[in-house]
């Protein structure tokens, strides 16, 4: 049994968060779907609320600090991504968008992604189609056909989740597992980490010496 890496990106702002709850449900279902297909999985979770200031600093300076770089490496190095956002003003949150704004434009090319969103009302149920899919199409990621939206009432069923929501979670997880298992393993963070454009820059001392 080979091992695949799953990155889980949650943009929830509160603790506890319905966004994180949905992300956890999607993760559990995807891990089970991978194992049913003969693949083990390791999971790394990125809580964007912990990187809000890091992301603002990156926008201003163009550089990621150590904590944010680790989060970026987790996402771009994964075999599959689960990305979940709360709905703000009929779209994904600004924090969610900012994370993808600081990624290299080719970082997610071909990456299988499961899209999820949460809101207080079902009025926002099309946010995945009209906002999230265009974003990930621009990034040339491969979004699974089934997006999973959860409104507040969807958590009121048996076991804490509505049966229709549970069905969408299971279907989307199976679609992500199919895409992940159909691709060569990337080898975790090191497999997709972007090259450091400043890695070969000579020291200031060497520049002064004309080297």
UniProtKB/TrEMBL annotation:
- Record keyword Oxidoreductase present: yes
Q: Which UniProt keywords apply?
A: Flavoprotein, FMN, Oxidoreductase
> Where does the record place the NADPH-dependent FMN reductase-like domain?
6-155
Q: What InterPro entries does the entry give?
A: CE1759_FMN_reduct (IPR023932), Flavoprotein-like_sf (IPR029039), FMN_Rdtase-like_dom (IPR005025), NAD(P)H-dep_FMN_reductase (IPR051814)
Q: Which domain of life is it from?
A: Bacteria
Report the GO molecular function annotations: oxidoreductase activity
In the UniProt record, the signal sequence range is none
**Pfam family of the protein (one):** FMN_red
Amino-acid biosynthesis as a keyword of this entry, yes or no, is no
Q: Can you name this protein?
A: FMN reductase
In its UniProt entry, the species of origin is given as: Geodermatophilus sabuli
Organismal lineage: Bacteria, Bacillati, Actinomycetota, Actinomycetes, Geodermatophilales
